Structures are given as structure tokens and as C-alpha cells.
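Running this now, will post back.
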Amino acid sequence: MTSPPGISDVDLAVLDRALLQLRRFVAAVTPQVRHGDQVIESSTLLIVEVLTEAGGPLSVRELAAELAVAHSTASRLVDRAAAAGAVTRSTSRQDARLRAVDLTGPGRELAAVARRYRQAHLAAILAGWAPADAAGLAQGLGRFADQTRGAGRA
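Update: finished.
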């Protein structure tokens, strides 16, 4: 593989290693949320986050695309989220052949709780950083994340 002009192989290796570490970090700070005596799975949190970002109902096909998983996998994840009480399924207003998946009140609260939990971990990690460094990281990582959307899909 050839590095893009001006970007060294060493920098790519550091970024690769950092992204692997960040994946472990995200998995580690995903809160284990309980609903009664039921543990909410991290996959339910993913469904809830996608629906929160969308700001409204999505079809299972749209959820699959957002999560970069097969339709059947997204359907199973939606089943789990529905069993946890985080989402509802109904007939789509736009197309009666499709099922619309939307957040319930508890699903919206779950999203808020999970976000506060993750952001508290980030705040603790960044506590010793200069504000400009934290802002630079947020801007650069946000830009990078935006560019990765769809990059793995062909």
C-alpha cells in the first residue's frame, strides 16, 4: 500500500494502532444498562444511537445501511431492542411494505444515559488537556469520522 502524499507510513501505523485501541475503549465504556432485571445489550445502544441521530423512524433497511450490517442482522438487532422496550415497530407511513422502527420514551432516556456515561469518561481523560488541544482532537476526529461514512461499503 502506498501512503497518500505527505502522510508517512509511520503516521498511518500510529493511526491504525490508535483506532484499534479506541475500538477497545468504546467497548469498555459502553455502559451495561439494566432495565428491570434485563441487561441492555450494546447492540441495542447502537440501534438507539442511530435512531436518535436520525431524529425519527427508520426502516430496518436504513438501519442496516447505517450500521453497515446485513438486513437480517439489523432485523435481529431491532428484535432485541424491541424486547428491551427501547424501540417500537410499525407500518411505515411512506411505504406500507416497510416496517418503521422508532424510539420509545425509555429508548430516548437510554440514549441520554449512555451518552452522559460516555462523555463523562471522555471528560475524565481530557481533564489535563489544553482546551485548544481537545478542540483540535474533536475537530480532526470528527472530520475523519465523517469521511469514513460509507468508506467500507462498495
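The mean pLDDT is 86. More later if anyone needs it.
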